Amino acid sequence: MEACIRFLSHLGFKDSHGMRGLNNYNLSCCVNTLLQTFSATLELANLLDKWDTASMRSDSGNVPLQLKKVLVAMRSDHPLPAPHRDFLHCLDRNRIQLSIQHDADEVFHSILDLMQKQMDNKTLALQIKDLYKISVQTQLKCINCDSVQTLDSYLISLPLHIKEDQNTLGDCMRSFFEHQELRGRDCCTCEQCGTKTPSKQGVKLLALPPILCVHLKRFRNIRGYTRKLNCEVIFPQTLNLSEMLREAFSADFAQNNCKYTLYAVVVHSGDAMCGHYTAYVRHSRSWYYADDSCVEKTSWQDVERTYGGHGRRTAYMLMYRRDSKEEGPQPECSG
Hints:
It is built from ten helices and 18 strands. It is an alpha+beta fold. Strands 3, 9, 13, 14, 15, 16, 17 and 18 form an eight-stranded mixed β-sheet that branches. A four-stranded antiparallel β-sheet has the order 2-1-8-5, with no helix packed on it. A two-stranded parallel ribbon has the order 4-12.
């Protein structure tokens, strides 16, 4: 019996935890891992379920359409890995090529960008973008005259630089929002002074999204050579950004709920040029580990081992869900 269970697990056997594995085709582990995080983002699946695609069933090059189909397949109770070749070929048609190594954060942004461009329901497309949209304001303060120039923009993920020793997620976040002095060749033109002057540049938060994606920038280019930083980054299961980033909020920030809970971790193992992606995903208050076709139950202690500081699996992207005002069950998929 145990041998049979191991065999079914290897095939991607799906039990009551509600996850299906995905076969690895032509180095598709990066896409497989992102699909597991998208599947766990039930808010995204609910929005795609509302999209009427009756007139688009044969559009093999439409990324949101093929994503909707594969997410539906991943929710089914079939015991074998979910079919997703059509989605992989769709990405290939949209210049996310098969058979090459990809960066998970870049593919994540590409998929969301293609969804904005290819969905005919622009209202739903904007709602999908708003799931991840981090509204920020860049402030540039002239040191000579104290005048301030501002620019409002947004991020889809929070890109955090890490130090080559021990880091905490809170320290990395606070470093991102710290003001930096720009002098010498980095001076910017001050509209008030009419010339390039030394200044202080910083980023302020205007609004936080329902889904907070954090990108730990582990790959660094040094003299034309890309290497991976395996240093430790300690991240918690829950975040209270009103405490952690109090100084980063703009004067216009009016959001009350800044508490988040971790529900997915994109993991990279190996070096910068030859690696493998897997994912830890939280379903129904339990953690599961997805390695292509194999999905198995795990624990928070196993997730903690991805902090880094060694040559094993290291966390690369973190997905946090904003807590509901009233504590209750996770959102359920419709349809």
